[in-house]
Write a structure and sequence with these properties.
With 145 residues, this protein is an all-alpha fold. It has one domain: Orthogonal Bundle (Globin-like), CATH 1.10.490. The protein has eight helices and no strands. The chain has helices at 10-16, 19-31, 35-45, 47-52, 58-72, 81-95, 99-117, 123-141. Helix 7 (99-117) packs antiparallel against helix 8 (123-141). The chain binds protoporphyrin IX containing FE (HEM).
Amino acid sequence: MTTDNTAVPKEKETEKTDLVCESLELAAAAAGDISAAIYADYFARCPGSEALMSHIDHIVRGKMLEEVFRLLMIQDYAGEEGYLNFEMRNHRLAYSVEAHMYANLLDAILATVRTAAADAWTPAFEAAWEKRLADLTAEISARVS
Ligand code: HEM
């Protein structure tokens, strides 16, 4: 049986097209695993974070980034309150993570994705990231003093 794509309602197509997700896929296709590049950029702009993460191997670093990517691909954080409350509190109490470290991490991710996407990067991607980072930063700031 063949699938008739013309039958997909317009709003369904729009829901599927998230520019942040699309740019992450694009960066991965162009540069492969960008985790190491993200951490290199992050630690260069945030030496305090490098010290905090010095005992963490690449597997745990990778798992942490997977969660940050997951949060970056969400358009509405309404279902994430419990998770965000837990992680932000745990990060503050157990690892002494400070507010500016989150901002630096998110800036490092954006810079690395932008670089990996290279010529395929567009103003629409930039605008989508600006909005998503503002939304996620607002959620984090509300939980980090
Ligand atoms: C939205 C942002 C963040 C999320 C969602 C997040 C999530 C996580 C998760 C899920 C883990 C556990 C990984 C595992 O063991 O499987 C983890 C570990 C860790 N994270 Fe984050 N993280 C975030 C930001 C940060 C920042 C900004 C720092 C600053 C340096 C940081 C420092 C750490 C450290 C030190 C650990 C390892 C703790 C240990 O096991 O000793 N995280 N993070």
